[in-house]
Design a protein that fits this description.
Layout lengths: L22 E6 L7 H12 L6 E8 L6 H11 L2 H12 L3 E10 L11 H14 L10 E2 L1
Parallel strand pairs: 1-2, 2-3, 3-4
């Protein structure tokens, strides 16, 4: 693809973003919330002048209940998830937010990823990278 990723923990101070083409921010969905540090990163991006370059959002969530009754009862803890919350914050900050979010299911509270999650992430990343140079409206979708 010709792109080189750099991974950084949201607990660390944001580096100089000069030369950064895009940012992907992620957080686990825990108790229907997004990690406060991940949300704060989105707020700091605007202050660092990162409003034109693409920003993508993803989260992990789960485990998903196995019965329809349990799923219905637990939906409030899973949807919209950290991804939905962070996407709203990013849009409110005026960032160039990719309209689709990536949500990856995990098998347990701390992982591992569900069987198809890695392939889903690779596919999402390929599509996201192929759209560089575009700006998006305030629509939202989930991948």
């Amino acid at each position: 693809m010709g792109h080189e990723p750099t991974i950084q923990d949201v607990l660390q101070k944001l580096p100089d973003l000069h030369g950064v083409d895009s940012i992907v921010v992620d957080a686990p969905t825990r108790m229907a919330r997004a990690n406060r540090k991940a949300v704060n990163v989105l707020k700091r991006l605007k202050k660092k002048g990162f409003s034109i370059k693409p920003v993508a959002i993803f989260d992990t969530y789960g485990p998903i209940p196995t019965t329809p009754e349990e799923l219905e009862k637990d939906k409030k803890w899973i949807y919209p998830g950290a991804a939905g919350i962070m996407q709203k914050v990013a849009k409110n900050q005026g960032l160039n937010v990719y309209p689709e979010t990536l949500r990856c299911e995990v098998k347990g509270l701390k992982g591992p990823l569900a069987d198809n999650a890695l392939e889903k992430a690779v596919s999402f990343t390929r599509v996201f990278v192929s759209t560089f140079g575009k700006t998006w409206s305030n629509s939202s979708n989930s991948h």
